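Entry 12.
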Amino acid sequence: MDLGRVFEVFRALDREGVRYVLIGGAALNLHGLARATQDLDLFLDARPENVERLKAALRSVFADPEIDDISAEDLAGDYPTVRYAPPQDPFVIDLIARLGDRFRFEDLEAEERLVEGVRVRVASPRTLYLLKKDTVRPIDQADAEALRRRFGLGEP
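Predicted 3D structure (tokens):
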């Protein structure tokens, strides 16, 4: 993943006032747990005005008319995840508005971090642990265990 591109996205999200929380592998890295990742996972406030701010932020980084296809309706629907991948660019962003009935944007604890001079809203270690601990993916289970050990979360 191109870190320059990552920071362009974070600067644009901040500039546009997008309400998001970084989760996934990139969030683990910001908490000091090294984890390879191929994408950014952003948990979003799916209200239409926030999705419009998101689209403005993405348009400022990527010259891609398909950004206009991202909709609040999709993010509020039965499958509240949109994968955005700009053409001819290996960069991928997963936009998540809800995880089942268990997690909504309002349920997430987040911390604001200044990284390379850019403000990033990242899920707290506790939130990341809760998001990952009961999934079936082995990588998520390993992440949850690493979070548990590093931050003293959950049961041993």
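Annotation: Helices lie at 3-16, 24-30, 48-61, 72-75, 125-132, 138-151. DSSP finds six helices and eight strands in the chain.
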